[in-house]
Every structure is written in C-alpha cells, then in structure tokens.
Amino acid sequence: MSDEVNEHLQNEIHGRKLPNEAERRLYLDTYRERVILALTKKQVMEKGIRQEVLNAMHDQKAKEVLVDGHLSLEALRPYRKAAETRRMSYRRVTLDEPEDSYGLVVASDTAIDREDVLAEDEPETEAGTSETDGKKPWWKKLLGI
User: Fold this and answer.
1) How many CB atoms neighbour CB 119 within 10 A?
2) pTM of the model
C-alpha cells in the first residue's frame, strides 16, 4: 500500500513517467519504430539538403519532419522548404539536453520498424573535399597536380 501511495505522490510531483523516455529524447520526441531516417547534427549543418532526406520524404509512410530546435535556422531552411513542398508536418523540438539527440528525423505516424535509420556519412579525401565532388582544390590546379 505504501509503495502505491509513494508512486502516486511521485507522479503528482514530477509528472507521469513516459515509456521509453530516453528513446523519445534521442529521436526528437518520437519512437524509434516510427523513424524512417535520422541525421546527426553535423550532417544537418552541412550546406544544402541531403539526397537521403529527399528520398525519405518521398516515402509513402513519411508524415513528419522533426528537427532539433537548437540548430540554426539557416541550416534548417532547406529541410523546412522541402517538407512544405511535400505538405509534410514540420516541427522544431527543443529539448533540455540537446547533446543527446539527433539533428533531424523523418518519421511516420505509425510503427514501421526499419533496421537502418541512420544516414551514412559521406567519405572524405585527404584534402577534406568529398569524393563525389570530383573537383580539385585551387592549389592543386595551380601546381598542376
């Protein structure tokens, strides 16, 4: 009896505990089984929009784009525009502990439980440019390398 009373008091004081609360913080207030694609904050801060995100937004089950509210509006602008053109829900989620979450999540409104939801990092060459870029740095062009 005292355990029930203690639990009731704790719920009244601190609020009811939500199931999988740590998981919801990690995936910007949604459950892991609803995630179609998740990007780290570093990936979101890259210039332009990633093709993986556009592909995930074209998925029939994609209903919502969740972004970390602590990221700059300039970095989030292309993602917001892409969500608006596809008439998807776009929501900024501001959490108390922002370092524990992803930067962007494309989610469904029902459970789809995909195995690999994390976006791949693009491989970089020793000069620091993307291999898919195909352009040489200006100093290599100058030296004829």
Assistant:
1) 21
2) 0.71
